[in-house]
Amino acid sequence: MTPYTVLIVLVTAERFAELLVARRNAAWSRARGGLEHGAGHYPAMVALHTALLLGCLVEPWAADRPFLPLLGWPALVLVLASQGLRWWCIRALGPRWNTRVLIVPGLPLITGGPYRYLRHPNYVAVAVEGAALPLVHTAWLTALGFTLLNAALLSVRIRCEDGALAPARPLPVPSAAP
Predict the structure, then answer these.
(1) What is the domain class of 3-167 according to CATH?
(2) CA distance 158 to 92
(3) Residue 173's pLDDT band (boundaries 50, 70, 90)?
(4) Are 119 and 41 in contact (CB under 8 A)?
(5) Residue ranges of the alpha helices (H) in the chain?
(6) How far apart are CA 140 and CA 156, in angstroms?
(7) Which pLDDT score, from 0 to 100, does residue 21 have?
(8) Spatial CA neighbour of 57 closest among 111, 15, 93, 9
(9) Which residues of 135-154 are buried (b: 16+ CB within 10 A; e: fewer)?
(10) What region, left, alpha or beta, does residue 138 occupy, with left being phi > 0 and alpha being psi -120 to 50 degrees?
(11) Mean pLDDT of 84-102
(12) If you ran DSSP here, which 8-state letter would residue 172 be given?
């Protein structure tokens, strides 16, 4: 097994760990009256992420893509950084983190951790990882395809999530006229 294949296997194992956390957290949310929003786009998200991992394995082999150190090493650093950001998000949200949009009514928004700096840091992690992981081994078609499809999917997902979280967002305070 090549080092790149080992990396893809490790990322796949990490995805399964996420799904276990999500399943546990979904039970926590549902026990507290949590409601799912946007379930219709979830299968597309699963398919896209599965295709990313498969593309990472198939494209370098099928197209005889070389490992280019000037591209591969920085891409690997971005992959590792995106993993760190993702798990920071999971830690910050605690039992409220999920791969689905599950909202427990009445809970305030989380404003700590990476959410102090970004509104959707987990999606930043997904976007960076989805572009960088294939580029570790020059799978540029997979990187491009995932990036374009993920942008379309995230436009749906973020609208869904923002709509579901709107009741928890404080209303803006009008500024006084000078």
Answers:
(1) mainly alpha
(2) 19
(3) low
(4) no
(5) 3-31, 42-62, 69-93, 121-135, 140-165
(6) 25
(7) 98
(8) 9
(9) bbbbbeebbebbeebbeebb
(10) left
(11) 98
(12) P
